[in-house]
Amino acid sequence: VVARQRAEMDRLRDLAAASAVVERAKGAVMALTGCSAQAAAETLAQRAEAAGRTVLEESWVTLGDSGAFGPPHTGPTAGDPPPAAGKPGGTPGRASVATCPDASEPAAADGASASLARLARDLVHVGTPQDLARCLLEHLAPDAGADAVMLYARLPAGGLDLIGHAGIDKTLAAQWHRVPPLNGMAPLDVLRDRRPRWLEDIERDRERYLLIGDPPERWRSRAWLPVATGDAADVCLGVLRRDGGPFPPATREHLKAVALLCAGRLRTFGTRPEPAAGGTADAVQRVLDALPVAAMLLTPLRTSSGAVHDYRIDAATEQAADVVGRGGGELIGRRLTECLPAAESAALCRGCLHTLLTGKPYEGPPFAHQKVVGGVAELSTYSVRVAALDGGLVLTWIRHDSSDRQEQRLADLQRLGNLGWATWNLSTHVATWSSQVFAIFGRNPARGPVRLTDLPGLALPDEAPALDRAVRALIGEGRPLDLPFRTRTPAGVRHLRFVAEAVTGIDGTPVEVLGFVQDLTARRRAELALVESERAMLTQHDVLRAERTLAARLQDALLPLPRRPLEPAGLRVEVAYLPAQSGVNVGGDWFSAIELPDGDALFVVGDVAGHGVDAVATMAQLRFTAKGMVITGSSLTGALARLNTLLLHSRGSHGTASMVMARYQPAGRRLLWAQAGHPPPLLLRGGRARYLDRPSGILLGATASPVFREAECRLRPGDRIILYTDGLVERPPESIDRGLERLAEAAVAHHVEESGSLGTLLAA
């Protein structure tokens, strides 16, 4: 159990340390770009995905780059072999973490990526450059064959200072601890031009450089890489190997990526400032050490233009660790954005800047902070305050006790519920209102609260008597009160709810009244709007029902459906009608099947756009007019042209309509037909189905100059012709061609001779 708990604590510490790195990187992005915390997190995630890194790796890279978005050098470096043609050398504009220079090494690239991810996680536990060197050797020994690691920092005078090493003895470290600015030193050349040096042939390299080692042959190959901590390279990473020979391309890319990750860690080591001028920081630190508070002294850091881009911590109390997570001594010299979560540092930096510019103290809103005390997570509430001090700032965290938190929760409850509490002392006649009650009544707090007996005077005149009776019953009999009423405020009439009860004394007489007032205006308006909407819906429903009933009666009267087959000109005609929606059988579809005076038969199927009374009226007009025109001698195309003119010039016309007209001449079994934007008839013959070729024709009512043509079909005994409307074959979003295919297949499958077969076919 203890082992599991220790493992879980280690896991939580690792997670917290990694989260702190990510939060500092988010803060750096926010400080440089002015974006929000969410946008900074998304930026880090996008950059990590584009470069093939984890978010933690990208955070280290961002912390090491002062521009945060300025791409570090990734082009060819001195000693690098030229990239193979057609093979990638990394992500454009950024150093690639898992670059695979050869297509035959995907596994190696994957391994390098995993190794970098492990290194990024281990860097969060590194506290000094010496620890960093040990960590790098532990990772680079299996990955790059490293036998020693050295970290050199540039001195102000131009020399080198050995700030970390691993794999070399103390004697050698002491000998090469300080290196003067000599010519022929590979680390110095690397820092001057920010390009790696790959020393892979010791005999040739000793002619160009002064090699570190006693003897130098102890390491037969070396790599020196710049670690860019900002706009300049001030640290050089050395990787020394006992084996000679060149560094493989994959290893070179891996070492470049390692140097890129280390930049963020090294930059945090190098942020400790020189002592503050005049000893102000020391004096403030002595004062802070004597105070039992969490506080910091901040010095603004300015750009060359004078703009403040961050704040340096020059003094801090140990109690600041409760909020920041580090001891007071560890905070000194660090930047504010590195020590606080991104969301908190962004708001705090704005408050600090306001105090610097105006000199007025800033107090931030309360925020929750969780810490672990004795293995138990404890949630505390803090607020931060900033005050100006001799060109700097004093930042203090105030921890709220339980009563403060309770008061804040009560204020939040009143604000969110739009209600406020009130008390009336019936003995002293002293009334107390919360601030929310004044806001609800629109009353200036300077005027004070209203006495309970005067409260009905705030209600509208028609509701004041009921409220007055309820208040008298409350005061005289102690009867609880729960009553809605309306009041007039500067913002208009409000709907309120007043709930109160009496507190009685020993003799049972009410001595105090406790209650609350709630603003229900928004809810009441919503209820009234809902009632009006329901009333309008019922009215509209009645209108639609009456209209549908009227249209149905009109349709039944104007277009009765035959109950048995018709037999004009020696043909058998069946009619079937299937509404597209259940219960809605009122539309513009119609048919005519009559025998003409000369013995021919006329068949018409049409479809008027829309439904309802207008569609039925247009349908009746077209149906009767079409029959009349053909009976009086008009041709099919002539009738369609006249119907088009009628539809265009009819007042209140329903718009457009499609139609197919067919005339059967029994003497020659000729079927003449024309169409106006209508699907073609379907011919069943000999167990096969085909659609007749459509002659020219356009929708009725679509144009003033349509062109209609006739087509002819010779029928045989046993043939069947199906005329239909498009509602039978349309099924959005399916193509109409698929609907026509489905109708033809169904017609062949249900080809029977008995009466009623058409309805069976269409239902199928």
Overview of this structure, please?
The longest helix has 38 residues. This protein is α+β, with helices and mostly antiparallel strands. The strands form five sheets. The protein has a six-stranded antiparallel β-sheet with strand order 3-2-1-6-5-4. Strands 7, 8, 9, 10, 11 and 12 form a six-stranded antiparallel β-sheet that branches. A five-stranded antiparallel β-sheet has the order 14-13-17-16-15, with helices on both faces. Helix content is 39%, strand content 24%. The two termini are 71 Å apart. 35% of the residues are buried. The chain is built from 22 helices and 25 strands. Strand 18 and strand 19 form a beta hairpin.
The count of strands amounts to 25
Distance between the termini: 71 Å
Strand order of the largest sheet: 3-2-1-6-5-4
> Mind describing the biggest β-sheet?
6 strands, antiparallel
Structural class, judged by helices and strands?
alpha+beta
The portion of residues forming beta strands comes to 15-25%
* Sequence stretches where pLDDT stays below 50 over 5 or more residues: 66-109, 271-278
Shape: flat
Write down the overall mean pLDDT: 79
Rg of Cα set: 45 Å
Can you give the helix content as a percent range? 25-40%
Number of helices: 22
How would you describe the oligomerization state of the chains in this entry? single chain
